[in-house]
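On clarity, I found the account of how folds are encoded harder to follow than it need be. For illustration, here is how one protein appears when written out as sequence plus structure tokens:

:::
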Amino acid sequence: MKPTLLILAAGIGSRYGSLKQIDGLGPSGETIIDYSVYDAIRAGFGKVVFVIRKSIEQEFKDSFSGKFSSEIEVDYVLQEIEYVPQGLSYTPERVKPWGTGQAVLVARDVIQEPFAMINADDFYGKEAFETMARFLMTLDITQPTFCMVGYKLENTLSEHGFVSRGVCVSDENDFLLTVTERTKIGVSGDKIVYQEGETEVSLPPDTIVSMNMFGFTPALFPMAESYFSAFIRENGFNPKSEFYVPSILSRMIDEKRGSVKVLSSDATWFGVTYKEDRPIVVGKIAELVEKGDYPPKLWA
């Protein structure tokens, strides 16, 4: 059974200044999404599902419709604020959806096979997709046996502002013990730190972090739905609360309901969090094309 690639592309890009999911960064105007789909196809994925919002639906589809549909099956699902479990309420002050955990849940009806989840604006590298595909193709779809591709923190920072990362701790067999979402990580002097209130806490450069490249089976969905219901009951009236995938996995691990294997990869990661990151990413893609890792034009 070929796995599916779930791409989280519902962000509006407030820090970037435009809809970065459709920004052409490759030599023939390719987006980061194009490279992710290209890598997924050659790694053996059989379908791609995009999580988007109504407000960007037409612009997004205009950019990608037909581009690679002859190479891989394509589907779309919508993530909106109002998509919460039936009977639950939330603050009318809410202005954006509920985070990556909700984004996975909205794809429940279109995914029946093992799947990888990634961000639309992160470049993960072909080796990461190959590593992920090999693991997913071994899984029993009824079992909560999951995985993630981990990256060294020092290789995932932006020179232009804070980033959010899931900080991971694993056991001696590379199974995830905890993953803690840190939302303000950056460089302070010669240290990497995150902000906790008014305090700066340092992190080792080789700390393994999640870049939201996770692998799941459909066994994730019922657990995530129950956790999301609890989250809305507890946090629905906090307009800035976020339901993150790492929170789902942390609770699952604490309750001993499943496992997450941390996969190592030599892949190169980079991304566009801020507009100032753009020329760096353009240059890195150009280098990969020059090396022959990608053709100058991905799609015919």
